[in-house]
Amino acid sequence: MSEDGTFQVVDEKKAEEVPWIPLDPLNPDYTKYPDYAQVKALQCTVKAGEMLYLPSLWFHHVQQSHGCIAVNFWYDMEYDIKYTYFQLLDSLTQALTHS
After folding, report:
1. What is this structure's pTM?
2. Spatial distance between the Cα atoms of 37 and 40, rounded to a whole number of angstroms
3. Contacts of residue 12, Cβ cutoff 8 Å, sequence gap at least 6
4. What percent of the chain has pLDDT over 70?
5. Is residue 85 a contact partner of residue 64, using CB atoms and an 8 Å limit?
6. CA nearest 41: which of 28, 55, 56?
7. What is the pLDDT of residues 66-93, one digit of tens each?
8. Residue environment code for 22-59, b if the CB has 16+ CB neighbours within 10 A, otherwise e
9. In this predicted model, what pLDDT tens digit does every residue of 15-47 receive, in sequence order?
C-alpha cells in the first residue's frame, strides 16, 4: 500500500515462487505422496466476522459450505531462519519416520 492509501498490483517476474504441493486432499495419490497417508486432518468452521490464521508453510484445503466471499491475505514470507528451522524439522521428521 502506498503512502496515499492506494494499492498497486505489481508483477514480480523475478520473485521466488511459494513452495507448492500439487496434491488433491480429497483424492490423494498415495503412490506419489505416501507420507500423506499419515495425515490427521483438522476441521474448523469460520463464521461471519471471524478469521482463521494459518502460519507460513501450513498445507491447507478450504471449502465453503454456502455462497460466500473469502478474502486471503498472503504476506511476504522471508526465507530466513524460520524457513531454515522448518526445513530442519521436516528433515528430522523424515529421518525418524523412514528409519
Report:
1. 0.50
2. 9
3. none
4. 86
5. no
6. 28
7. 887 777 777 666 667 777 888 888 888 8
8. eeeeeeeeeeeeeeeeeeeeeeeeeeeeeeeeeeeeee
9. 666 667 788 989 999 999 998 999 888 899 988
